[in-house]
Amino acid sequence: MPEHAPSDFWWRTAAIYQLYMRSFADGDGDGTGDLAGARARLPYLTDLGVDAIWFNPWYASPMADAGYDIADYRAIEPVFGRLADADALISEAHGLGIKIIIDVVPNHGSDAHPWFAQALAEGPGSPVRERFWFRDGRGPDGGEPPNNWQSIFGGPAWTRVTEPDGTPGQWYLHLFAPEQPDFNWGNPAVRTEFEDVLRFWFDRGVDGIRIDSGALLTKDPALPDVSPDEPPGPAHPFTDRDDVHDIYRSWRAIADEKPGRVLIGEIWLPDAQRTAAYVRPGELHTVFNFPYLSCPWDATALRQVIEEALALNAPAGAPATWVLSNHDVDRPVSRYGRADTHFDLARRRYLHGFPVDLALGTRRARAAALLTLALPGSVYIYQGEELGLWEVQDIPDELRQDPIWRRTGGEDPGRDGCRVPLPWSGTEPPFGFSPPGSPGEPWLPQPKEWRDYTVAAQSASAGSMLALYREGLAMRRHEGALRAESGLDWLPARDGVIAFDRGDVRCVTNLSEQPAGLPPHAEVLLASDPLADGQLPPDTTAWLRA
User: 114-173: which CATH topology?
Assistant: First the structure.
């Protein structure tokens, strides 16, 4: 590792809070979360005990995909505030000892991006069109898409434009929504622009960059048809191609110009070895551990995922990351309360059909939280996870906003259910999300049952999910064994139980349906639920002094 001060490696063991701006806190009363609301709640995050905040995109955007369609990286979306507000938040967070991570979305931009508007206006042959993937269509009149690629959001990955003379013209590629045209990373202007964007935000004090859809950037210039069975990798025309690593090597050089800056990849790949390649020396610092997030509530499967994550990151000297949820996946309370407890993006519509046992899901989510906080490396907490919120599955159709819902004709419920605004206080919506007397309602409706899950209500309860997270994070910070970035020794355990030592702290999780005996210990440090007669109840985690 480079010879920097230990503080430069904060990201190796950090507890990082994912803040989804639209749904965190509304400061101006319009029903949408914003920078003012986030700044006002920084003391809450300090009390929670996190080391860093990851913000989903806050840039200027038409909001066709909740800000992941970016029109200008050097401006803040007016709904969220101004650039000066972002600067103030970064400064105030740093004053509280909290680092700031922001999203960059290099695969695509917005159809409102000045480049795309210029490309449309100038027509075929324009050099600006080469910054995207404009191609003539197939068929005698060019009326068929250039190839058979499908959008991740459903439907074809190509949209035909109307040329300046009013005639049907070329098609452009969008692996996501039509409002999100893909950039052509073979064009030098694209590379230069994103390198400048990284420097722009690093110079403003941002500590880290989370890279959205990080395996999708480069495409085969021939744009061949793809078989649905084609696995990601060098032979795939748009996923996990070897040339994407050239981009990240250049980004790492930029990050290394300022010690303490970090690059974090969102790399969804089925091949763990291919995923690990992104954290080779000179590339990304860490990548998200999606196998852990997707893993079912099963002791054998979880242990295997943990072992593989540690083994794959170790050769590169990278820390493992641990994450239970985010803005794209079902909340753990609901996922663990179903008969099928694993998560799979491709099967989301099927999994949503399962009934949810909220009491069971909550018990398992509490146990999963302590298990996760005990693992070596960095940990991510998606907002509301610390409150034990569940996936809101009964949002009225007319209020849903996720383009996945629209583009699949309602077959895929999309991601709105995990993005419902947080409850802060009170007994009626908006539960303190917006200032008292605000004219605007929250942009997605909150369940009335959340009155018992507000921050205020849980702060007054020693047994709440919030209290558990606060205690767990505090202990993780102050117990040297838990704060260490490495070191995990497995202990013998019966079927359905996971047990390991982190120095003199012993973590035991019972994922079975029967109580389990506790291993030898000097004292109980923390448990996700009360212990009984020296036994660990089902779906419970305990931290013990070894």
Answer: Oligo-1,6-glucosidase; domain 2 (3.90.400)
